[in-house]
Design brief:
- The chain has twelve helices and twelve strands.
- The chain starts with 22 loop residues before the first helix and ends in an 11-residue tail after the last helix.
- Helix content is 50%, strand content 13%.
- Helix 8 runs antiparallel to helix 11.
- A hairpin with a 2-residue loop joins strand 11 and strand 12.
- By secondary structure, the protein is of the alpha+beta class.
- The protein has a four-stranded mixed β-sheet.
Length: 441
């Protein structure tokens, strides 16, 4: 077995002991890596250069049930078995799936170092289907989940707007009921919608009543070939293959049966959905940081300047060491976090880990920024070039804003984390207070 370049793999894959991974997880990593290497990783940089992932790649993943792992753990076992999905890659039974399996999958999907190709396949599936599973009526699920879970139709999550990003309560797209109460008429715009271009549907945040969070609802809105819907690709700095989309909605008629859950509960549904999104972003982004730093490390072992290799220069080792310490600390936190997810129920995890999830997502972006910048600087001119040896560092560096902004921008995440921690602390200490009028000890 080839000795891995330092920082190129998590410690558990470098022969070091870990308390988190059992034999089932190890077998899953092996099968997962084999499939993803063949069908994604080896082609990813070519697809990113071209700006698109071939359509048949999505179908390969769907046919192998390799979109299912992008859903939150535990998996929707009843629905999956109903559709004939009993395991993934003949390795993990769907009922045995946990968040460590999810983390392995997410880590492997980004092992090319690029977010775009993986995002083109999984973003809509991962973040737009769960609200239907958790809050959709039985009738809504029966109408849409078979095609969506099997990958016969595609879907996106449509929250952000030209003037509304992390401030979800400010959404302006409206959904007004017709006089007969049978349809919603949707008007507005959505921006930066990943996978929108090829999605038949969107799980969309809309305003069904007054201002603020209480006026928000989630609606399953048809997109492709739907009258009143127009979509176009947005050019962004990184994530070139992910299908970032601008959506215009002009008098779009949607059956009231497409309401997800209850009117006015959209903010609640969106917030619970964000936790899975932010944690998987943190996992994938940390792998990107690993790819960038390992590429720079390998380059510094070979590149000569001033009569010796870059690695022989103390200042270079110092820069690698600082970035490496951040990287491995972040990964250790991610592993701990994922393990905690396997021990907590959804409700408890949302309360105890919701704020920390935001913090982990923010910190992952900070770590990626440091590692990508370190790589570009050590590659020198090659790191500033879109081809050649430094291409991977240059492309990862362009992906950095895509780690620090989508899913909740960094400053908002840092603030949210502390506010949530304060709220939890106050709620817990309130229970320890002595009732007024009770005797003193």
């Amino acid at each position: 077995m080839k000795q891995p370049i330092p920082f190129s793999e998590p410690p558990a894959l470098c022969g070091l002991p870990s308390p988190y991974y059992n034999q089932a997880h190890i077998a899953w990593r092996r099968a997962c890596r084999s499939f993803i290497d063949e069908n994604l990783t080896q082609h990813a940089i070519d697809w990113e250069r071209d700006g698109f992932v071939p359509d048949d790649v999505f179908q390969k993943f769907a046919s192998a049930n390799m979109l299912v792992p992008s859903l939150p753990a535990p998996l929707p076992v009843e629905w999956l078995k109903k559709l004939g999905i009993h395991n993934v890659l003949d390795t993990v039974k769907v009922e045995n799936w946990d968040y460590i399996h999810t983390a392995i999958y997410t880590d492997e999907m980004t092992r090319s170092g690029l977010q775009g190709p993986a995002a083109s396949l999984t973003t809509g599936y991962s973040y737009a289907i769960p609200p239907i599973l958790k809050f959709g009526s039985q009738q809504l699920q029966e109408r849409f989940l078979p095609d969506l879970l099997l990958g016969k139709k595609r879907i996106c999550i449509a929250i952000t707007e030209p003037n509304t990003g992390s401030d979800v309560a400010g959404i302006q797209t409206t959904a007004t009921k017709t006089a007969d109460g049978k349809q919603y008429v949707v008007n507005g715009t959505k921006k930066w919608i990943t996978n929108g271009l090829w999605s038949s549907y969107a799980t969309m945040a809309v305003r069904t009543s007054g201002p603020g969070p209480a006026g928000l609802s989630l609606l399953l809105v048809p997109l492709l070939d739907q009258p009143g819907v127009s979509m176009r690709k947005i050019k962004v700095a990184g994530h070139l293959t992910s299908g970032t989309t601008f959506i215009e909605l002009d008098e779009v008629r949607v059956p009231v049966e497409n309401l997800i859950g209850q009117e006015g509960q959209g903010m609640k549904y969106i917030m619970t959905n964000f936790n899975h999104e932010r944690l998987t972003i943190a996992i994938g982004v940390t792998r990107q940081a690993r790819v960038a730093l390992a590429a720079a490390f390998e380059y510094c072992l070979q590149r000569e300047a001033f009569g010796k290799t870059l690695m022989e220069q103390p200042v270079v080792r110092h820069r690698l060491a600082k970035a490496g310490a951040l990287l491995e600390s972040q990964w250790a936190w991610i592993e701990q976090f994922v393990y905690q997810m396997t021990k907590l129920g959804k409700v408890e995890a949302d309360v105890e880990l919701g704020g920390l999830t935001a913090l982990a997502k923010a910190q992952a972006g900070i770590v990626l920024d440091e590692c990508a910048r370190c790589a570009v600087l050590l590659f020198g001119g090659n790191g500033f070039t879109t081809t050649g040896r430094g291409e991977i560092a240059e492309r990862i560096y362009r992906d950095v804003p895509g780690a620090r902004i989508p899913g909740g921008s960094e400053d908002v995440m840092l603030d949210l984390a502390v506010r949530q921690l304060v709220k939890n602390y106050q709620n817990k200490t309130k229970g320890l207070e002595r009732p007024k009028g009770s005797s003193k000890l």
